[in-house]
């Protein structure tokens, strides 16, 4: 019975009537986010992990770079994990600065290091060669962290791949050289980071990761006499996209990490080593929905539902063959006695939100809610094929709504083109 409660039934935080009212103001497609769900989850997350010394979650801005949501998460006590210049600016725009920012980038341009230094972010380097690059372009900060790639020591998972094939991070040997180099160059405080898996639902995988980092912290102290100030377990905590999948139990995970902490940290005099995370998906993912309308029903060799959205609004199914649950509003109680491919309008056959999905019969005009788009949804949008990104709407705790990003218009799409220059531009007429 308890197990049953933890299993996900895929529920919606809004009714069909509510969505119809919203859609009258803000035409479909749009992403809608559930503020109450986000806040409650953030509090649960923070509370469970607060048993870890100095715990802090740096929300991975790339998962949902909307400053309204980042502001909500700031209020809930989270910092921001950034990996680009605009992400640093977004954090700054809501007042997240200084060591409340973790700058975990890779293949980093010099100007981004300069910006990160300027606002006092904790810089988490991706490579040993970046030590000299950072020093030359932005100076060596007092606090420095390195991203560790365990290579053949860990297996990784489907989305992020095999660590030894992954472009990220330092080798184990390089970590030790790196800390020595940075100490010589004036760094005084040190951190260690890794991210081995993505969208992983097995909490034991993260407990293993924590143990791996604690072991390195012990070795760094023994070999170099450096007491690390923090370990950052990265992101990658998965969410139950499929009905019946089990959500990660925060209490179990935090207790598992704490158990390893007790084994390695106090006995080696490494207290008060702080523990950080930089999760995105698990923080906002389940609390976003792409709302789209069926505009065409097509019967050829298979049955297709054509929607007014596309991969430009949600790339995960096309890119990773990811499952996103679909609810047909107002037809929740009906039998799923049809099989459809639910498609977008890109001239790419992978522009499908679902393949061979069992659903109730769908008619033109039906509104579909595609679940779990609160992370890596709108943020992965693009303009290929002249497609425009949708609006983002926030459903507030009192049931009211705020548009937190308008939909793109054709003028946005053309904003980087100069049509006056085009008029003056003479294409060579080769007279064929
Ligand atoms: C993407 C990413 C995250 C967040 O990952 P989630 O799967 O959204 O939790 C955190 N840190 C780094 C370095 C990342 O690249």
Short recap of the structure:
This protein is α/β, with parallel strands linked by helices and 432 residues long. Helices cover 32% and strands 21% of the residues. Strands 1, 10, 11, 12, 13, 14, 15, 16 and 17 form a nine-stranded mixed sheet that branches.
Tags for this entry?
eight-stranded parallel beta barrel, alpha/beta, nine-stranded mixed beta sheet, 432 residues, binds pyridoxal-5'-phosphate, globular, Lyase, Ornithine Decarboxylase, Chain A, domain 1, 17 strands, 14 helices, 21% strand, 2 domains, disordered N terminus, TIM Barrel
How would you describe this protein?
- The protein is an alpha/beta fold.
- The chain has two domains: 35-285, Alanine racemase (TIM Barrel); 287-414, Beta Barrel (Lyase, Ornithine Decarboxylase, Chain A, domain 1).
- Helix content is 32%, strand content 21%.
- It contains 14 helices and 17 strands.
- It has helices at residues 2-6, 16-25, 35-49, 67-75, 85-93, 110-118, 129-138, 172-184, 203-224, 250-264, 281-284, 316-320, 410-414, 419-424; strands spanning 30-34, 56-60, 79-82, 101-104, 122-125, 143-148, 189-194, 230-232, 274-277, 288-299, 303-307, 326-328, 338-343, 352-359, 367-370, 391-395, 401-405.
- The strands form two sheets. Strands 1, 10, 11, 12, 13, 14, 15, 16 and 17 form a nine-stranded mixed β-sheet that branches.
- Helix 3 (35-49) runs parallel beside helix 10 (250-264) and helix 9 (203-224) packs parallel to helix 10 (250-264).
- The longest helix has 22 residues, at 203-224.
- The protein is globular and about 70 Å long.
- It starts with a helix and ends in an 8-residue tail after the last helix.
- Pyridoxal-5'-phosphate is lined by residues 60, 62-63, 81, 104, 195, 198-199, 234-237, 278-281, 375.
